[in-house]
């Protein structure tokens, strides 16, 4: 295949960290991104070049371009952590095949992206592109965090931002394992769909005295893990309402609150603890055999509809600067970028 | 030995938990304690009766009588967690011997106390009573928490309330293991003594910009464990100034602050975590062979003066209601109660 010299890409326009904490909302792309024609990256030793078919847009992408993620930005580099596409370069037997991947050296919001050969995930032919494009960040995080739930030995777990894509994946995992989620959401309108998906209970934070409801539910369900993508004061209050041995596992920061630890003594006397989850670290620390096994599970779940990808919209790369904020602002569903359009 | 029917004891006058968080200061004993003549407890199956020679007064005792500890108060029961005395009752070969012990059924601030036979710790003849009376709560906590420091793999650790009895034990352990403490204290007057004891550095919280000093020190020393008996906002700030992988281990609550988590994302991206340490839980979870080994270490350290007990005062039991608050208010040193006086 003859590759072009140049490609279209959404590149970052800032370097490093911002030192802010504004959450994953994106009112305007212009302070962080620009649509540019840049050279197609050239794979070095151990790298593969992928012609991107569809790229995912996750909250972590937005944290990243805003300089609020665990890795520094590099001005001029394409953004976008994950996607699906065809391997078109690099010394790999997967050349010509459709793969999911986590972009390393050059991001997925571009016509071509680059990653390490070891990170290419072959896709089953019956896996849809929207499922393939997003099979890494959210589904792998869901599987990894659900291990914490299983290991906690409890019959249920607590989950906030439960209406998110990741939340829905976790609710379905809980349903299938018989360890149902107590789902925390902001809007009452989300409750019915999450109960239908298999949540044991739904707590609506906007309702009257949601903490009293939580306390009553925790007495019945005795959940030991709180999976938290919000990090606000209500999350801290939930944690302190949970039973002995509870773990608050923070993996995202939708809120800009700095929550107060009003009952620190529970860490001493009730053996509670507060920790974080980061997929990048998990992948480094987990038994390597676990990763391909996880991707087999993920693809099987999507193909059999045990998991589904709710679509907010597919934004053409050429229109992403203007359209991405509006699609991301939709309350449910996941956004993608189509580099060919 | 013929035992009396009645004994003098400082008994609790309240039941259960207070629901407050006022810290371990004691302005007045009367709301919590009363000096009474009560029946000498009668040991049941597996229990030993001890004639108390000297009883320790620890911060955890004050938390307990104020209803702010992990166990509920029982009105009418003698207070006091630890002490030294002679075994005078119970089916044990230690009858007649001097032992240190953690009071179970009936507390140590009394002429007689009771505990499980399994919890009796024989004392070396060359161990002084002031060291024997306090060899459990503080020294065992110090050894147990210093394991966390060793396991962290760092060359130093951070310690607040470093001028406390427990703080000094930890500083000496760090000195002897070549993993020196960065000691955090409130008063500049404490600094010199702690440096002499073996602390690597002293941060005085009352000084100008102690956080800037901490940041500079952490860059050099890369400490991974913060042993915290204070639980205030400055402690949280210290934690967030520490390097990747840092653990905030809270074991006491001298402050009534509810510290804010201003950089929760560090739990995700820097693998930090916040947890508690409670000796009671540690003793249940640790390899049982570790406990007698630890007491051999503790007694050896006191006898060889690797550890010393700084005395604030020995209060006669008969005068404790009036004198205890003043002795506890002394800035350094440990208080004891003499049940025979």
Blueprint of the fold:
2 copies of one chain form a homodimer.
Chain A: E1 6-12, E2 33-39, E3 47-57, H1 59-65, E4 82-89, E5 98-102, E6 112-116, E7 121-122, H2 129-133, H3 137-152, E8 157-160, H4 165-177, E9 181-185, H5 191-197, E10 201-204, H6 210-221, E11 225-228, H7 233-241, E12 247-250, H8 265-269, E13 273-276, H9 279-285, H10 290-303, E14 311-316, H11 320-328, E15 334-338
Parallel strand pairs in A: 8-9, 8-11, 9-10, 11-12, 12-13, 14-15
Antiparallel strand pairs in A: 1-2, 3-4, 3-6, 3-15, 4-5, 5-7
Helix pairs in contact in A: 3-4, 6-7
- List the quaternary state of the chains: homodimer
Give the overall shape of chain A, derived from the CA principal axes: globular
What number of domains of chain A?
A: 2
Mean pLDDT across residues of chain A = 95
Number of strands of chain A: 15
EC number (chains A, B): 1.3.1.103
InterPro entries (chains A, B): ADH-like_C, ADH-like_N, GroES-like_sf, Mito_Enoyl-ACP_Reductase, NAD(P)-bd_dom_sf
Family (chains A, B): Belongs to the zinc-containing alcohol dehydrogenase family. Quinone oxidoreductase subfamily.
Keywords (chains A, B): NADP, Oxidoreductase, Transit peptide
What is this structure, in a nutshell?
Two copies of one chain form a homodimer. With 341 residues, the first copy, chain A, is α/β, with parallel strands linked by helices. Chain A folds into two domains: 6-134 and 309-338, Medium-chain alcohol dehydrogenases, catalytic domain (Quinone Oxidoreductase, Chain A, domain 1); 138-281, 3-Layer(aba) Sandwich (Rossmann fold).
């Amino acid at each position: 295949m003859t590759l072009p010299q140049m490609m279209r890409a959404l590149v970052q326009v800032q370097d490093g960290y911002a030192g802010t904490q504004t959450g994953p909302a994106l009112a305007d792309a212009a302070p962080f991104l620009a649509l540019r024609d840049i050279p197609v990256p050239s794979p070095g030793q151990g790298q593969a070049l992928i012609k991107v078919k569809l790229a995912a847009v996750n909250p972590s992408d937005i944290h990243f371009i805003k300089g609020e993620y665990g890795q520094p930005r590099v001005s001029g580099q394409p953004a976008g952590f994950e996607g699906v596409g065809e391997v078109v370069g690099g010394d790999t037997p997967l050349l010509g095949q459709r793969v999911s991947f986590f972009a390393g050296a050059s991001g997925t919001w571009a016509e071509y992206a680059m990653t390490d050969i070891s990170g290419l995930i072959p896709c089953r032919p019956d896996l849809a592109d929207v499922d393939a494009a997003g099979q890494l960040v959210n589904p792998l995080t869901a599987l990894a965090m659900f291990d914490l739930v299983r290991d906690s030995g409890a019959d249920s777990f607590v989950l906030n931002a439960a209406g998110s894509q990741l939340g829905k994946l976790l609710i379905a995992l809980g349903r299938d394992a018989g360890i149902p989620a107590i789902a925390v959401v902001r809007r009452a309108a989300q409750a019915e769909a999450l109960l239908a998906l298999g949540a044991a209970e739904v707590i609506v934070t906007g309702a009257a005295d949601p903490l009293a409801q939580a306390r009553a539910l925790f007495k019945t369900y005795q959940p030991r893990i709180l999976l938290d993508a919000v990090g606000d004061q209500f999350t801290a209050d939930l944690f302190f309402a949970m039973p002995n041995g509870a773990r608050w596992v923070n993996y995202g920061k939708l809120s800009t609150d700095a929550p107060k630890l009003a009952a620190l003594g529970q860490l001493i006397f009730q053996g509670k603890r507060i920790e974080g989850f980061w997929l990048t670290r998990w992948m480094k620390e987990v038994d390597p055999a676990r990763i391909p096994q996880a991707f087999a599970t993920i693809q099987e779940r999507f193909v059999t509809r045990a998991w589904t990808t709710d679509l907010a919209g597919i934004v053409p790369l050429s229109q992403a600067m203007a359209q991405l904020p509006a699609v991301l602002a939709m309350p449910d569903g996941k956004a993608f970028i189509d580099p060919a359009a």
